[in-house]
Amino acid sequence: MSARHEGLEGVTATTTRLSLVDGTAGRLILAGYAVEEIAPRAKFEEMAYLLWNGRLPGREEFKAFRTDLASRRRLPSTTSYLLREVAARWTPVMDALRMAVATLSLGQQAAPEEQACTLVAAFPTMVGAYWRLRNGQQPLEPREDLSHAEHCIHQIFGLEADGIRTERVRGLETYLNTVCDHGLNASTFAARVIVSTRSDLISAITGAVGALKGPLHGGAPGPALDMVFEIGAAERADEVIRAKLQRGERLMGFGHRVYRTRDPRADVLAAAAKQFYASEGDRQFYALAQQVEKAALRLLAEYKPGRRLDTNVEFYTALLLHGLDVPKELFTAIFAIGRVPGWTAHCLEQLRDGRLIRPHAEYIGPVGLPFPPL
Ligand code: ACO
Q1: C-beta 250 within 6 A of ligand 1
Q2: Which three-class secondary structure state does DSSP give residue 184?
Q3: Residue 20: which H helix or E strand, with range?
Q4: How far is residue 206 from each of residues 104, 119, 201, 348, 359, measured CA to CA in Å?
Q5: Which residue's CA is minimally distant from atom 38 of ligand 1?
Q6: Contact predicate 286/277, CB 8 Å
Q7: Residues 236-290: tens digit of each pLDDT
């Protein structure tokens, strides 16, 4: 019997060229580029191209790729119809998104690369359309003249291109780039398991959305923001956090399975948040969040000595997205918009090089029970 690794911790299940997550050094490399080097500078379309092709596009390749993606923004009529139906029932955003993703390929059998493009292009349209419907507004016509990040802002907030401020686009784009891939995290693993059976990418990304919505994965930034609001003033930070830790609660936005030091994505987003809040947004809130982070780190070290619990990507996600006026109900869905290139790139890699994923479970139940007739 082979060794058991609860939660598959420390198990290397495959190889990848997409990202290197170095938990000891606190380093994240995205297809060769350090996250702090590429995320604040690249266009989101460049990141998607890089992950799918293993290199950045040239100028002409970039233009053609961007045009292709933009042409795939419109949703199938079934998807639009179902989004309208579930909005009337106030279905939570991630449940609606999971449903909508699953309908993108009904009756079609496109090549995996085509499915990847359609998925990336359609995510902002699905999220924006659903959010507007939930708020009693009509979805907006997709526009092909906007960049992916601009289109995302347009679909959700309804701002026209000349009303979308550069700082906002850069802030959102840096966020999306920062979270575009991250090794074999739970949702990516779920996607790879699904395509390892030679199933399609739409099924895989439907499963990934389901995995991402859990509070231990992509569902953390909403509660992280709630904690800052609950604290409300820097002098209350110790009292509120202490009470949470004494009740055995986890502080959302802290701790990570792989990073035993500060999550490098937190630094990239902290810099983006600093830059953004310098030009607009609630600066008092920004200052409070920094005080909360300091208190949380101090108290985690006190209550969980030797555990090395540090700030993860979700804490600064909450801060940055809140500054960008993204409602907290949309945080995980925006995370998904950023992660689709990574999910789909992993699926393509798995289809190209991978083997059926089928680990073993150690049976610990009884054996040899006699069947009792009713
Ligand atoms: N607050 C308080 N205690 C914590 C926290 C936290 N945020 N994270 C871990 N711990 C404690 C656990 O209670 C446990 O303590 P114990 O041994 O005394 O019982 C110990 O640290 C180890 O916890 P594990 O669950 O074994 O750590 P694991 O590696 O499985 O968990 C996880 C990683 C799930 C991210 C965890 O740190 C957590 O729940 N954090 C809060 C949720 C969060 O921020 N999630 C987003 C992660 S980033 C992402 O997915 C994009």
Answers
A1: yes
A2: strand
A3: strand 19-22
A4: 10, 10, 8, 15, 22
A5: 255
A6: yes
A7: 999 999 999 999 999 999 999 889 888 999 999 999 999 989 888 788 999 999 9
* CA distance linking residue 103 with residue 80, whole number of Å: 10
Taking the centre of ligand 1 as the mean of its atom positions, its distance from the CA of residue 68, in whole angstroms, is 40
For residue 315, give every residue at least 6 positions away whose Cβ sits within 8 Å of its Cβ, in sequence order, or none.
Answer: 221, 224, 252, 253, 254, 266, 289, 293
Q: Write down the pLDDT at residue 204.
A: 98
Chain-centre distance of CA 100, in angstroms? 17
The one-letter amino acid at 315: F
Residue 166: CB atoms within 10 A of its CB come to: 9
pTM check: above 0.90: yes
**What residues of the chain score a pLDDT lower than 50?**
none
Q: How far apart are CA 290 and CA 316, in angstroms?
A: 10
> Which are the catalytic amino acids?
256, 314
Tell me the Cα Rg of the chain. 21
